[in-house]
Amino acid sequence: MLLACVLVIAAVVAAVSVTRAGMRSATQAGDGFVLSGRCPPSFELIAGGTCELRDRYQFYDSLQDRGVGGTRTSLPPHRDGFRPEQIDLGRYLFFDPILSGDGTQSCGSCHRPDRGFADGKPRSIGIHGQDAGRAAPTLWNVAFLQTFFWDARASSLEAQAQGPLFSPREMGNEPERLLRSLNDNATYRRLFRQAFPGGGEAITAAEVYTALAAFQTTLVSLNSRYDRYAHGYAAALTERELAGLNVFRSFVARCAECHTPPLFTNGQVAVIGAPEPAGHPFDAGAEKTFHAAKLRGGFKVPTLRNIARTAPYMHSGAFDTLRETVEFYNKGRGNAVPPGATLYLHWHISSPDLTATEVGLLVDFLQTLTDEAFVPEIPRRVPSGLPPLDNPKESRT
Ligand code: HEC
Ligand code: HEC
Q1: What's the whole-model pTM score?
Q2: Last-in-domain residue among 195, 220, 245
Q3: Ligand 2, residues 271, 294, 329, 335: which to mutate, most atoms within 8 A of Cβ?
Q4: Which of 171, 185, 302, 376 lies at a 20 to 30 A Cα distance from 110?
């Protein structure tokens, strides 16, 4: 009897506290913004409340295969271990123009989900219509990169984010102004406290960079038709595409030496001598980063994941189509190096003399690397109340 009583009282207390908690979160979320407590697809919530990547490539332990284009190759180290709320907060920040100096640009303006997280322009256009100088790279699989920017000048996503935020040619903001505008926003103050429970009252710059990094590391694309083939489903590629893969990893074309599976980049800087568009000055690239003349005109080997979605190509957007890009490699070593310039071209850049058919096969193969299954949802509204993408209509077509 006594036990029953205690149980009833306990149940009533529990019911009351559930309602209280429910009411509290309802008032707190009166502005309609709720951070998801779930990990995105291909991540698992582990003890401690963080998200860990789960992918079939993690079953392979094939270090010796690296660099030769083997299909069952293990993945390089990657970033994960963020709380689901940090990831979701990063998604709001990524699409919120409040991050720019004049409220016109978000990260998503130049890294658009509908354009493979690039922007479809030869060179990005920043605040006040300024030429940002280089093409926006895709953000798919950035979790696996060790260096960032075409010239590898940043060594973490957190450091990278400060580039566009505070560049007068990109988002044109300043650290104090950025923090003031976020701290003046009651919704952001609430969301940051939820995502960073151990943090102080005010939003810090480090929290902003962490949330942006958390979101970007969830942009994983490893389920293309190529991957199905790599995992053993032979029919995933057509005969032509398979022939294209074989050209790609052949010792004649050598593409896989630098665009190494499974990420289709070896993460290194290479000098290949891609041209600038007419009238655009020479770009010394990684020479500046490493103060090394032999890296003059060197750029980070870009991933080829979702490459069919991110035209135009190269750091300068010099090529409009994949065929033009592949033909550049086939025109011979150094074919686009300006007369008189001294570039130390990488030894894998050769003159492969591929036939027109082989060039076509390569282009067909590159189309099999498309996988946008885990594209995140663009928020309809962001806490600042500003429009999440500069041109939402265009972005959804
Ligand atoms: C004005 C367009 C523009 C905006 C806005 C912009 N980016 Fe970029 N992003 C670029 C360009 C251009 C590059 C390459 C610049 C370079 O290499 O010098 C780049 C490079 C990057 C890279 C490096 C990728 C790699 O493979 O090395 C990351 C990561 C990135 N941006 C994330 C962000 C984030 C996060 C934001 C928002 C805080 C943002 N970008 C805002 C245009 C933009
Ligand atoms: C020596 C290393 C190396 C080899 C070999 C190589 N690439 Fe590249 N690739 C690069 C680098 C570096 C870039 C970026 C250069 C730039 O932007 O100036 C690039 C860019 C590209 C791009 C454009 C990517 C983008 O996002 O704009 C494509 C497509 C491409 N390569 C395909 C190939 C194919 C196909 C082959 C084989 C025929 C090949 N590559 C061989 C290093 C290499």
Answers
A1: 0.92
A2: 220
A3: 329
A4: 185
348 belongs to a structural domain:
yes
Q: Are 180 and 216 in the same domain?
A: yes
Confidence class for position 216, pLDDT limits 50, 70, 90: very high
How confident is residue 390, by pLDDT bands cut at 50, 70 and 90?
low
For position 157, which CATH number holds?
A: 1.10.760.10
Provide φ and ψ at 189, rounded to 5°. -60, -45
Please indicate, yes or no, whether residues 89 and 129 belong to a single structural domain of this protein. yes
User: How many angstroms is it from 3 CA to the middle of ligand 1?
Assistant: 63
Residue 269 DSSP SS3: strand
| 73 close to ligand 1 (CB < 6 Angstrom) | no
d(CA 91, CA 69): 34
What residues act catalytically?
170
The three-class DSSP label of residue 51 is: strand
Q: Which residue has the CA at smallest separation from atom 2 of ligand 1? A: 110
Atom of ligand 1 nearest to the CA of 147: 27
Same-domain status, 248 and 344: yes
Q: In angstroms, rounded to a whole number, what is the distance separating the alpha carbons of residues 321 and 360?
A: 12
Q: Which atom of ligand 2 is nearest to the CA of 138?
A: 26
Could you read off the pLDDT of 249-280 as tens digits, one per residue? 999 999 999 999 999 999 999 999 999 998 89
Name all residues whose Cβ lies below 6 A of ligand 2: 253-255, 257-259, 270, 272, 274, 299, 301-302, 304, 307, 310, 313-315, 322, 325-326, 329, 346, 348-349, 362
- 36 C-alpha to ligand 2 centroid (Å): 38
Residues in the chain: 397
56 class by beta-carbon count within 10 Å (0-12 exposed, 13-18 middle, 19+ buried):
middle
Å from CA of 14 to ligand 1 middle:
49
**Same-domain status, 53 and 195:** yes
Rounded distance, CA 238 to CA 367, Å?
12
Which atom, in ligand 2's list, is nearest to the CA of 135? 27
Instruction: State which residues form the domain around 47.
Output: 43-220
